[in-house]
Amino acid sequence: MDIISFVKRVPTTTTIVSIKDQQLDPQGVEYVMNPYDEFAVEEALKLRDEAGSGSVLAVSLSDGAAQKELRTALAMGADEALLLNNAEAGNIDCMTTARALADSIQGRNFDLLLFGKQAVDRDQHGVGPAVATILGVPCITEVVKLTVEGDKVIAEREVEGARETLEASLPCAITCQKGLNEPRRASLKGIMAAKKKPLETREVELAGPSMEIVEMALPPKRPAGRMVGEGAAAVPALIDALRGEAKVL
Amino acid sequence: MSDPATPRAKAGFHELDFYGVQDLLTEEEIMVRDQARAFCGERILPLVPAHWEAGTFPNEIVPELGEMGLLGPSIPEEYGGSGLGSVAYGLICQELERVDSGVRSFASVQGSLVMYPIHAFGSEEQRQQWLPKLATGEVIGCFGLTEPDFGSNPGGMRTRCRRDGDDWVLNGQKMWITNGTGCGVALVWARDEQGHVHGFLIEGDRPGFSAPEQKRKWSLRCSVTSELVLVDVRVPESNRLPNAKGLKAALSCLTQARYGIAWGAVGAAQACFDEVRRYCLQREIFDKPLGAFQLTQAKLADMASEITKGQLLVWRLGRLKEEGKMTPQQVSMAKRNNVAMALDIARQCRSLLGANGITLEFQSGRHMCNLETVLTYEGTHEIHTLVIGEAVTGLAAYR
To answer: What span, in angstroms and rounded, lies between the C-alpha atoms of A12 and A14?
Structure first.
């Protein structure tokens, strides 16, 4: 089973966001592997090991800095990694990203492409389906359970109030949702071993952007709370406020 | 930014890195730190307050500590370690102590005070016998040097070893020994009839050896502290560390452990600072955040400055160690400075948290209590003062 997992370097979800020049101000920001991509890497390793043969390639497009995230994938157990570099990669739309990723794996055999369902920085949800479309393979999104049987996959996904089970033939693309698995941690031995695994770096051209960021603004500050009274005596006023102002009762 | 996708993100710790010290680390060191940070934050931290309250060590995490490679990580791979560099090892200590000084103490003793001397001074058989099992946590080790009446002056030790045919017979008592009770192996230092100090590996079930736990501590409550009692404990010559020559060998182990403590203290200070900085932004008093008051800002500014200095001190110390240039006096400076710094910050943070600060819902009070021990053990603050004093004057002032 040959699997390609795609990995994005994103700010940690505890980042204190500030904006500079219509972008996230990188000052003091810590970066990690996109948490949803951890599910994709874990699933790739699991399926490879279950199959007993094949390899896992981790691919990332970044402005040059994502080597650490790829090394983390290697430390978790991936066999090789491919780092695509372009100085503009931090600010491009998902279609442009998808084109670069799809180009990078042209001519390479694969059974499965695994993506996180979204990257937690831009939240576009688009790269996985777009790569699948470009390559002409089926794509099942937001998968919470995945089984490979012969030359097909059976994937389960949560939909509003129900669980849907889908089948697709290999090769295909899957985007991974929380619940699919519990990503392993890279052990220190894994980290040391990752140093010796192949990591190819390639400069890539990017197609012209199909959109641009016009403005980036922080959400408005939440208004301060209001005390309606204290203890049991405050209950009538609270109910009035919930009915009249908040209109939640 | 969207909601945290995995529990991994919930650790929610924000490190202060005012001087971009991270840029001085290698990619591998950052990976080691991040993996240790995630493991400590998600797996260990949630267990700590209840264990601290109960006065128990979280034994359930030991196999995972081993699996992650956090026990004796600097030991070569052939003996079950990861062959990690000194800065990476320091970063692990920092992350462990960010969770709790007792947890870091466990790992320091196992790695620096048991695995290090077995690797440095042990025979090949001893290395093969013990190191892999210590690395996985299957065997827990302890280090017996301090005695009831001899702490800062270990040279006065009363524990005796006597040669008897092919065996040695040990008698004496050790005190304040981390990981003693229930240990699989104790490295015990004893003086022979000629006055030479030797190190012995004593299996936990050796007849005559016992390790009653010392109770009623209000510090390092997540760590097992024990007395070691040796009554005619008979061990073969093959249990003696053949290459440990005198008290110097024992003291060199302490230099290793102290090195980790200097890093660990930065972690404890970071935990307190992060907790309190958030609190100061959320907690309102007189209609504005606590952090908007000048008195608060003065405290936060002092803390941030001291943490930054401490970070740079251990970073440089780590690089010196990797280059083989580190001196015990430099380790004394880092241990002394960083532990006192962390203790002071923990106290300041406890105070800024007001009444909340005295509960186990917050970390600072727990760190404050723990750090009182860290200030005293592995060379007291005062002894390290004299070590530095001697280094800069050439005059020893110990007695």
So the answer is: 5
